[in-house]
Amino acid sequence: MNEYVLEMKGITKTFPGVIALDNVSFGVKKGEVHALVGENGAGKSTLMKILNGVIKANSGEMYLDGTKTNISGVNDAQDKGLSIIFQEFNLINTLSVAENIFLGGLNRPKIVDWRNMRIKAQGLLKSLGFSFDVRRVVGELSTAEKQLVEIAKALSFNSKIIVMDEPTSSLTKSEEKMLFKIIKELKAKGVTIIYISHKLEEIFEICDTVTVLRDGKVIDVNPVSAITKDMIIEKMVGRTVDVEYPKRTILPGEKVMEVKNLYRTKILKNISFDLRKGEILGIAGLVGSGRTELAEAIFGAERFDKGNIKINGKVIKLRSTRDGKANSIGMVTEDRKETGLVLDFSVTNNITITNLNNVTSQRILNSRKEKDVAKRFIEELKIKTPSHKQEVVNLSGGNQQKVVLAKWLFSNADILILDEPTRGIDVGAKYEIYCLMNKLVAEGKSIIMISSELPEVLGMSDRILVMHEGEIKGELLGESASGEDVMQMIIN
Amino acid sequence: MKSYSITNDINNKLVIFLKKRAVTVLLLAFIVFMVISKPSFYSWGNITNILTEMSVYGIVAFAMTVAIIGGEFDLSASSIFGWATVFFISITNTLGLIPAFFLTLISGILMGMVNGFLVSKVKLNAFVVTLATMTIIKGLTFFYTGGSPINTSNETLIAIGAFNVAGITLTPIIFVIALIVFILILAKTRFGRNIYATGGNYHVAKLTGINVDYYKFIIFVIVGFCSALAGILLCVRVQAGSALYGKDLALYAVTATVIGGTSLSGGNGGVAKTVIGLLVMSVLFNALTLLGVEGYFQQLIRGIVLIAVIIIDTVIKKKNK
Ligand SMILES: Nc1ncnc2c1ncn2[C@@H]1O[C@H](COP(=O)(O)OP(=O)(O)OP(=O)(O)O)[C@@H](O)[C@H]1O
Ligand SMILES: [Mg+2]
């Protein structure tokens, strides 16, 4: 008897200009939670897509329960007890939550029993600690809610092996806890889980074994008990990296933005705050607390019913994002696929789109200038891509996120709203992005940062606004605040 | 290990090249076949004939390509074209050539503005809107002419129609100018890039601060303008207008665009590709005529070609995912 429930041997996968996986061997034991870690673009998602029949390897073999197996496609994989929570959501925006959970896969019924389907869907979400109306259309959900639907969908197959590709990247601590509880329950039932994450603490909380990938090769396999976070990072990156939050020396200056009594029925309740020059203002809160809605209102992407926003002392009109941009506001949105990137566009075209005037000479686009801009950001943010002409749809998740950041950095806005800026970005690159944020504020720009990762908000912000149910519950100083302080404010 | 990945790379590149250029390769093969089997195909007269034939509709196909890149399409191009022919001839007969030229273009622009307004501001579906305006404009044209074609004997117009350099008339020249202008606008201006972005992902474009509604609007104005211009160019050739002219134009323009390789999903492609599509259509139908295939049968083939190309387009899209 083989102790491995799954073995992949000698897997190689190339794309034009890229060797994504180079002779990778990967084994998972029955009933374990196996972490798969590595830098952005290391090949994690590619390996898991091969496992689930989404794409085909150039060469290599696969064994399930010790027998050689061929996976011909997604349905075949589901048949053989494999399911996957994709890093990029695979939901149909125009269908309801319940339909998305049950109508996608093999367990699709011939005749739909709507009532039963809804009850089951509700049950699955409840087990995740969430109850929202499963008749809601997925397109209306927030990123975190979509993530939960994606998780529920994978659970609905009752698979033997479940792959989770960054399931917590847009969840806050409390939803994360629920997921971990479920993972532990699944494990107790003998289900095997492959867990991909850039939040390395999670690995020590729930995983048994960790495999590290670097540049498409397996670098190391270890029981979690025999390894530390620093060791993992070193193996991932190939050198030691800073994981602290970089310090700033400059203090915020005069007020650049004043938000007064912003009100939107049921969503925002009389929000008031200021933002200073050279300041990083963090916004903390649970999923659904109205953080994203507030950011969208400030950028002009969503309307508000009452209240006003002043920039440099003058009330501004915000009828659309164009007005936002005209007032030198930029916003990195939280969902790179739906709202961040034109997936068919090249890396270059996605970056320059926010500021085309900057790359024209006599009103004609200058492709040399565009190329230079793209190359500068590819270097600065270490975007892993075979060329600046690569379509972003072909980049790994974390590298796509870097393109979204680059796009708004190039817009040269004075006020930058960052909604989950480091979502899906690896530890090493995160530090670089924090340094970049510091550089921006040192240049006199101001940043509003929303993040589900509390440590990041605490570590980077000058001040933190704590939001709950559309209200600002209070304000904390970044230097002295702790996670407990934030949670305390939310509860009160 | 390395050599393996390099050959693999070359393989990949060849496959990608063939996929991208499949239509061009087929077109060339077909031309070679025709040249060998039908010497009359290869005569200068026939070549200029093909060019002139495709130029009139080609200008509209360019505009349609812009619309499709921007994520829309416009069925009313057919009716605007027909309207332009009768309106232009009738004004030529009353007010003269120059007023006719400008008034016809303005009427095309106005019709495009109505479409654009209904789609971008009222947020109606382009299919429904342009289907409706197509019918309305056609009705208007019939009403205007009482149903019968109208002619002109304006001598300047006849002279312009007869003007040519080595058999090449005014229409292909304007076609080439339009081609260059559209290539420049789409590839080299902010305006063009924003149309791609709007069609590529409306939501993303909007959140990037692009005035998406303006681009959705202007797309229809471009189609209206080009349809009217093409109508005038037809009048230059035939000195007549009829409500029946151009009834297959919208479908022709969409087909040429898609055959050329601009995807119906929006956000990519270009007018240079559409030239390939136009060549395929004209060469194919010219050849069919030379080979003595009946008109109704040609229509059938046209339909089949369109569906085949759309299927191929969709399959390639899926494969690449
Ligand atoms: N469809 C594709 N076409 C071309 N290149 C691809 C494609 N999919 C992935 N790649 C490349 O393969 C490499 C591995 O990508 P993969 O998505 O597996 O990375 P990852 O480890 O999941 O990274 P992340 O942490 O950013 O999600 C990357 O360099 C990526 O650019
Ligand atoms: Mg990935």
What can be said about this structure in brief?
The complex is a heterodimer of chains A (492) and B (321). With 492 residues, chain A is an alpha/beta fold.
Kindly describe this structure:
Chain A folds into two domains: 4-237, P-loop containing nucleotide triphosphate hydrolases (Rossmann fold), CATH 3.40.50; 255-491, P-loop containing nucleotide triphosphate hydrolases (Rossmann fold). In chain A, 34% of the residues lie in helices and 26% in strands. Chain A contains 17 helices and 22 strands. Chain A is globular and about 70 Å long. By secondary structure, chain B is mainly alpha-helical. In chain B, the strands form two sheets. Chain B has a two-stranded antiparallel ribbon. Chain B has a two-stranded antiparallel sheet with strand order 2-3. Chain B is globular, with a radius of gyration of 21 Å. The model of chain B is unreliable at 1-7 (pLDDT under 50). At the A-B interface, strand 2, helix 10, helix 11 and strand 18 of A face helix 1, helix 7, helix 8 and helix 9 of B. The structure holds adenosine-5'-triphosphate and magnesium ion. Residues 15, 18, 20, 38, 40-46, 87, 384, 394-399, 424, 426 of chain A line the site of adenosine-5'-triphosphate.
Give the termini distance of chain A in whole angstroms. 56 Å
Structural class of chain B: mainly alpha
Strands ordered across the widest β-sheet of chain A = 6-7-8-3-9-10
| Count of extended strands of chain A | 22
CATH topology of the largest domain in chain A: Rossmann fold
Quote the beta fraction of chain A. 25-35%
Helical stretch count of chain A? Answer: 17
Unreliable residue runs of chain B = 1-7
**How many E strands of chain B?**
4
Q: Which bin fits the share of residues in helices of chain B?
A: over 70%
Alpha carbon gyration radius of chain A: 23 Å
What's the order of the H and E elements of chain B? HHHHHEHEEHHHHEHHH
Largest interface: pair, residues per side: A-B, 36 and 29 residues
CATH level-1 class of the largest domain in chain A: Alpha Beta
Query: How much beta of chain B, percentage-wise?
Result: under 5%
- Major sheet size, sense and barrel closure of chain B: 2 strands, antiparallel
Shape descriptor of chain A reads globular
